[in-house]
Amino acid sequence: MTASRVEERPVLDIPVVYGPRQPLPLLAPHLVGESTGSFVNRLAHHNGMELHEFLDRVGQGKASEDPERVGKYPQYTEMYVNAEGLCYLAVLTDQPETFLQRTLPSLAEQHLLPGTGEAVWRWPWEPSDGHLVRCCSLCAQDRGVGEPAWLMSPDSWRVCPRHLRWTDDSRSDAPAFIELAELPETVPAHRQRQRLRRWFGPAGEELFADAFQIAVHWWTSMPDTTLWVQRARSAGLEARAMRVAPLVVYPEAAALALTMLRFEQAGERDLAGRARWLAGVQQLMDRWEVDFGAGKQPLLTWLERHSQAAVPALPHSPGRRRLTLALGHNRIATRTGSLDRRSCLPWQLGMAAPEL
pLDDT at residue 88 above 80? Predict the structure, then answer.
């Protein structure tokens, strides 16, 4: 009897697939604008894991060996991944990569880490763009999120006009948020800022940025101004704490932005027109009991940079009013990012008064 012949099958070149192949059992609700680190932290907890246990599922990276320290990462800095890491997250969450990139800002193409071949994640000391701001807990609860979450924000604070709360990037939980019921001027000021952005697009936001930068200059030079001290006390914060500055100067910044808008719309940029505008702002400052003599210089700097009109170069968007800011402003300010970047005024919150 002859031995049966075994047919040899060709060896197929099938690539080995590494990483997760199916979603996690429990999927965490999404918060639009959330930081990647905050989201994966919640995703881990949702599935009965701590963050340090979960990270191995998202690829390779370096983290502290102290689980307690790793657990604090989402509050302190942002997590970044490369393209393969994004793919892993898409599998684990059962969501398309494009959806995750729309929902979590730090997964956008410009923030993905370089390198291919394996999934990689990093936790740098500081976010590469923006600030980690505590999400309003009531907004989070409406989305089914019951633990602290952090959003990526261009600025170091956020206003929730729905729940009348102010949150910021403070790493302290004392307090985690500020109730705005005791600060009745803040929400109308925030809505005025939103109207400027809605009416005039980036130009409206840049005007508010200029006004805010001037208010920051005033607060840095005159932190003991009575109305700002009173607001700080109402918020339960130290009057001279840097954390308090954006909150307490918000109403004056919004009011000043309106006067800047009128100046730009009037187009009277000669010496007489600038003098009239400055006199009008002085009246406001007198009403606020902000020392005009001590706060005049940033106003003069702004006038200098807005003394020459710019020729409109781009068509305005439908539904928005045309507003082209001055030539000196456009040479310095950017159209995106934090308020200090959108402004033509160079100083930053946290500078000492002599540096301004």
Answer: yes
Look at the block and give the residue holding tokens 């005159």.
Answer: 222
- C-beta of residue 30 within 8 angstroms of C-beta of residue 103: yes
The whole-angstrom separation of Cα 179 and Cα 214 is 25
Phi, psi of 310 (to 5 degrees): -100, 150
For the four alpha carbons of 177, 182, 183 and 184, in that order, the dihedral sign comes to: positive
| Domain shared by 324 and 214, yes or no | yes
149 with 195, same domain: the answer is no
- Residue 4 belongs to a domain: no
104 and 209: one domain? no
DSSP 89-111: HHHHHT--HHHHHHHSGGGSGGG
Kindly report, residue by residue over 284-326, the tens digit of the pLDDT: 999 999 999 999 999 999 999 999 887 664 555 555 678 889 8
Domains of the chain: total? 2
Helical packing angle, 202-221 and 245-266, nearest 10°: 130
- pTM, whole model, 2 decimals? 0.87
Among 153, 177, 200, the domain boundary falls at 153
Mean pLDDT, rounded, for 238-248: 94
Considering the domain architecture, whether residues 347 and 208 belong to the same structural domain is answered as yes
CA angle 11, 17, 20 (to 5 degrees): 150
Phi first, then psi: give them for residue 272, nearest 5 degrees: -65, -40
199 CB-near residues (< 8 Å, 6+ apart):
320, 321
For 159-169, give one letter per residue: b (16+ CB within 10 A) or e: bbeeebbbbbb
3-state secondary structure at position 151: strand
* Same domain, yes or no: 131 and 235: no
Each residue's pLDDT tens digit, 196-228? 999 999 999 999 999 999 999 999 999 999 999
Range of the domain at 104: 36-153
CA 113 to centroid of chain Cα atoms: 20
pLDDT in tens, 142-172: 999 999 999 999 999 999 999 999 999 988 7
